[in-house]
Design a protein that fits this description.
7 strands, signal, four-stranded antiparallel β-sheet, 125 residues, Immunoglobulin-like, alpha+beta, globular, three-stranded antiparallel β-sheet
Length: 125
């Protein structure tokens, strides 16, 4: 009976460890804007590529738009650059990111209180 409990404990522990690998990281402020947050979740690899999901959250009381750039940790390879628009308090949908390296770097810039890339806000941090 003790062996069965030990095996059951190991199976449950392994399941919880596998589950925790696919959980979202805590929300983090972007390096320049205190009211734009992001979080990451590592997904299983897709062939030789690392697979991440990213999500953004708008802490402003109005609509914003911004550019986001994803690069490798050394910032030698730009993986993607896109523009995102979020309403006040809105969380974005999950965005898939595929990278050659295990670590990625996320940069948010050109923030505007408009859906258009105009009248950019300066850093507030």
């Amino acid at each position: 009976m003790k062996k069965i409990w030990a095996i059951l404990f190991l199976v449950i522990s392994a399941g919880l460890a596998a589950q925790s690998q696919n959980e979202w990281e805590e929300w983090q402020k972007t390096s320049c804007y205190s009211k734009i947050w992001f979080r990451l979740r590592e997904e299983p690899r897709h062939g030789e590529q690392y697979h991440w999901k990213v999500q953004f959250r708008n802490g402003y009381n109005e609509l914003i738009s911004f550019n986001y750039h994803v690069a490798d940790k050394l910032q030698q390879y730009n993986i993607t650059t896109r523009r995102k628009t979020l309403n006040a308090g809105q969380e974005s949908e999950e965005i898939d990111i595929y990278a050659r390296e295990a670590d990625i770097y996320l940069l948010v810039d050109k923030v505007s209180l408009s859906p258009y890339p105009e009248s950019f806000l300066g850093c507030d941090q």
